[in-house]
Amino acid sequence: MQPRKITLLAATAVLGLTVLGSALADPVEDKLTVETEEGVMEFVTTAPAPQHLKGTMDTIYSGWLFRETETRDLQKDDFDNPAMVFVDRGVDAWNQVMGKNGESCAGCHQGPETMAGLRAVTPRVDDKSGKLMLVEDYINGCVTERMGLEAWGMTSDKMKDMLSLISMQSRGHVVNIAIDGPAQSYWEKGKEIYYTRYGQLEMSCANCHEDNYGKMIRADHLSQGQVNGFPTYRLKDAGMLSAQQRFVGCVRDTRAETFKAGSDEFKALELYVASRGNGLSVEGVSVRH
């Protein structure tokens, strides 16, 4: 495609944001409280921006505040939340004997509640290996090293079921992603990717989720792109999506060749994006459209 046509496409996309932006310019005023078996849980969906975003934005918002009333209501009751089916599947997998020598997740870790807090601090640089790890990497570490099995696909159903279960154990915890020390170089790499323009539309993550959040792009109300709610049940796909999957989809929407889910690039990007949500609550498993 000729450069002039590429520029025209990008201009058209930005014009679409500008024209539709006046239709809906702000996140809604609502409070996320969830009816659970243990009672009502309250979540932080609005918080002061972390220090590293000062000068860029003052307040951070969960993506839940950018969804329609019907979608928000689904997440307010565990009985109605379609993502809970996948959490239940994760419980079954947790207790299943699947290792070559009869290992199970429960056999090593006891109950899934032992994973409490993990989702709130990942991605992180692992103390033992020195590698940048997603929750998915920790899962595959157990699958391959302790159970002697082939690694699960990064976006496979098995992986997302277990990711859903483990994320639920940190529900209500405050996101607190480390960006200094051994994480700093990865964070800088993720930040670079966040602001890099990709594809024929020459758009970056920041173009939508920083410059134009609150505006409408076609039928979608643009959020800040926070990942505190992932994994999420996406109504459009009638299934669970991980943050890694969403990154793939977003880059493809710019008409670009995308990095793979679980690649070094997307791990760094998830670290950076997750850090933009420091101060929000982990929503466990959320509902989006």
- SSE string, helices as H and strands as E: HEEEEHHHHEEHHHHEEEEHHE
Q: Count of helical segments?
A: 11
Helical content band:
25-40%
Give the strand line-up of the largest sheet.
10-9-11
* Overall SS class: alpha+beta
What kind of sheet is the major sheet?
3 strands, mixed
**Which range does the strand content fall in?**
5-15%
Description:
- This protein is an alpha+beta fold.
- It is built from 11 helices and 11 strands.
- The protein has helices at residues 3-21, 69-75, 84-95, 105-109, 118-121, 135-146, 157-168, 184-195, 205-209, 243-253, 264-275, and strands at residues 33-36, 39-42, 46-48, 59-61, 124-125, 132-133, 216-217, 220-221, 232-234, 239-241, 286-288.
- A 3-stranded mixed β-sheet has the order 10-9-11. It has a two-stranded antiparallel sheet with strand order 1-2.
- β5 and β6 form a beta hairpin.
- α3 crosses α7 (157-168) and α8 (184-195) crosses α11 (264-275).
Key phrases:
289 residues; alpha+beta; 11 helices; 11 strands; disordered N terminus
